[in-house]
Amino acid sequence: MAGSNDNQRVIVVVGAGLAGLRTLEALRRQGWQERVVVVGAETHMPYTRPPLSKKLLIDGGTHADVALRMRPSEHETQWRLGRGVVASDLANRMLRLDDGTTLRYDGLVAASGVRPRRLPDSVGGPRQVIRTVDDALAVSARLTPGTRVVVIGAGFIGCEVAAAATVRGCAVAVVAVDAVPMQTPLGRLLGTELRRRHAAAGVEFHLGTGVTRVDGERVRLADGSVLRADVVVEAIGSVPCTEWLAGNDLDLTDGVRCDGWLRMGGRRGVVAVGDVARFPNPLFGDDARRVEHWQVAADSAAHAATTLVHDLEGVAPAPGPFTTVPTFWSDQGVVRIRAFGLPRLGDRCAVLEGDLTGEAAIGYHSNDALVGVVLLGMARQSSTYLRHLTEELAKAKPGSEAQ
Q1: Based on C-alpha coordinates, what's the Rg of the chain?
Q2: Strands 231-234 and 148-152: what pairing?
Q3: pTM of the predicted model, to two decimals?
Q4: CA gap 372, 364 in Å, rounded
Q5: Closest of 138, 143, 164 to residue 54, by C-alpha
Q6: Which residues pair with 264 in a beta bridge?
Q7: What is the pLDDT of residues 164-204, one digit of tens each?
Q8: Measuring CA to CA, how many Å separate 87 from each of 84, 224, 277?
Q9: Is 175 helix (H, G, I), strand (E, B) or coil?
Q10: In the 8-state DSSP scheme, what is residue 12?
């Protein structure tokens, strides 16, 4: 237990991933010297997830290979790992854990993240997912040369898994209901080119159809096709982990709705960070959105910690609402993608520089305003395009005043 004084106030962080860890660190930087308890459903200390569907699938490894560095602090933190929060009472500031115990808090951080979206149980199995380090290592152990792998889903995770399995010498097929890979986040223009590259590397695509049944080694598709598989990996998206927040008059439609300062439902003393938070970003309009990117998890953690310390201590908050230009990357073997902004908001896209079949920069516009840039290769141009997009967004969507 952090500290021996039972009268100390306590902040509970629900979630022991990147967002939870960065919030803890930011709280200490903001001067919070009282108790912090971090509750995590996994038994592992915090680790980074992007390598799970990339490097870890190819090279294998252990938790140590993806563990996040812990910044030293003179103030002790209590870690309650292998425990989930199943219910909360925000009015009385209480949490109930899956072992029946309760936790009282003065400040609360929702950093519970997401879990893999699953097909109905009636589809059968076995079907594996990649969300945790244990998931990734279990799949990696089965990717031997000649193994037949079927990946359900052609988003970023699905395509990264397909690329890694191809590098390992597997025979890979990708099944997705979309017309092209990564259609929703990147659009048809770029999705068509990415399909071409993956196909040239040996990936077989079955698009515009879904999986109806997995019978042992047979994967049956809605179009009547049957694929043979030794390993089936399901990568059809994610679901925010918000069930523990039910019953508190919060908007949990897609994650937990926050105000511009990342307070859940606008309530003081309770904030959300990372993948589970749905927040307005003045740079992209008034709509509240979730953004499942590594960088946003870290940035939101820093801002939410400032908000929370303000709420508990009366310290001045950040000068304005939370704003961020999301960035993310995807290494798919045949191409390294780096993206800035929210390309999915674009109603049209065009090549800004280079050749789509080689290295290129693709711009995404909404109502003639630049909202995103995606780079295929072009690593040296990353800072230039990020700066350009940031300037364009600032001109189009100036931030609001502090609250």
Answers
A1: 22
A2: parallel
A3: 0.92
A4: 5
A5: 164
A6: 258
A7: 999 999 999 999 999 999 999 999 999 999 999 999 999 99
A8: 9, 43, 18
A9: strand
A10: E
